UniProtKB/TrEMBL annotation:
Protein name: HDOD domain-containing protein
UniProt cross-references to SUPFAM superfamilies, sorted A to Z: GAF domain-like (SSF55781), HD-domain/PDEase-like (SSF109604)
InterPro entries noted in UniProt: GAF-like_dom_sf (IPR029016), HDOD (IPR013976), RNase_Y/CdgJ (IPR052340)
Residue ranges occupied by any HDOD domain in the UniProt entry: 20-215
Gene3D superfamilies cross-referenced by the UniProt entry: 3.30.450.40, Hypothetical protein af1432
Leader sequence segment: none
Domain of life: Bacteria
Membrane-spanning residues: none
A UniProt-annotated Pfam family: HDOD
Amino acid sequence: MATRSHGLQSWIDRLNNAELPALAAVVQDLHRLAQEEKASVQQLADVLLRDASLTSKVLRVGNSVYYNPSQESIRTISRAIVLIGFDNVRLIGLSVSLIDGLLTRAPREQLQELLARSFHAAVQARNIAGYVLSKHQEEVFIAALLYHLGALAFWGCGGEQADELASALAQPGVDADEAVREVLGTSFRQLTQGLVKSWNLGEIVTLAHNSASHNDPAVYAVSLGTRISEAALDGWDSPGVEALILQLADFIGISPEDALQQVLASADEAVKVAATFGASKLCRLIPSTDPELIRVQQEQRKARLLQADLLVLQQALQDLGLMVSKRGDIGLILDALFKGLHQGAGLERVMLAVLADEQSRFRVKRAVGEDTQRWLTDFVLPAEQREQPHIFSYVLRHREALWMGVPASYNLNELVTQPIRQCLGQGMFFIAPLLAGTRQIGVLYADSRVSGRALKHEQFVAFQRFTQLTGRCLEALSKR
């Protein structure tokens, strides 16, 4: 049986000494040359010439149409550096080393998917950096390429433990991070940071994993490129991509339409780069930008959109009406409320935030809709915040339902604070106090931001009606 590794240092020692010493040495040497002000052509050539296979592959990539459109023959490393540039040759050397060091060992599906995503992220990040940086674009490419270095190294060299993790991740409802910690004794993020430190990969690669450094434009370019490559796996029309396109447009100062075209062009370029580096098997794993395919995805998404159902709405109202007199339990009341608003009124995301912790803060009691389960843990608001009042405490204090995002409520927009926007996103929403008689229970929230559709008057009427009826049910329950 192969040696098992457990814990961060155990994996770093194994990868450095037994599995990837040659790759580590090449990556370190190529990175060191980037740090030296006057690194010579000969120094770079010497690093690459140590390995005949690496030399021939760098020359093949250097002769490709992508790097050498004039097709002037390149037969030596020094000639490649003169024709296509020191930084490009260094980047080619590092990329080819990574592909060779990992893909030729164990071309398992997880490794191929992650390498494809890494190349896609690298091209996206470098092209984003081109708008905001006068230099260091190649460093940004490398930082994004190596962003998931720990996971890449594990899937390439993990052996039986990689099989074990693959089986664990295939189980329904598994917590992926927990499964990784169970098998490795550390997280992929910690393993990446450990290897980056051990291989001395420098500032941009190191800072990319520090959220506090995202005001550095190079680091932010790496972050955006990485997140775009991940979100694109859900389709170019997904809410995740749409949100990132807006962030990108704001960051580089172009329109959202132009930002989308830039991102699609970078995805196409990533396919060419992967093929050029001899990793054509990765090309199929980079999301296609074929306009027809995107149109089909959009149509499929629209077909999946939640539609209002009048029968469900009426049944839920009837159920709540009966529970006012029959005093149904809290679970049945909330079931009818959420079913009526979500499936009945067609509101895509619905949330009940109740006063908790001795009424000192709002916590989410229940939520329904795409990507709302994280609210149960992530959404916490102080009940009263004198220095920064917010819309949740406002509606509870004033006891009124509001339709935010329409002219009548523009004067309250400043109450939608930055923490609320970060958690819930931007756009129209309904919000109302939930009261059991005079007792404050919490706040009901609903929106249709999954599709971005505008909310309708009849939905607001239903939202108010359900809130009132639920309050009466809760009041009846408290008098039991």
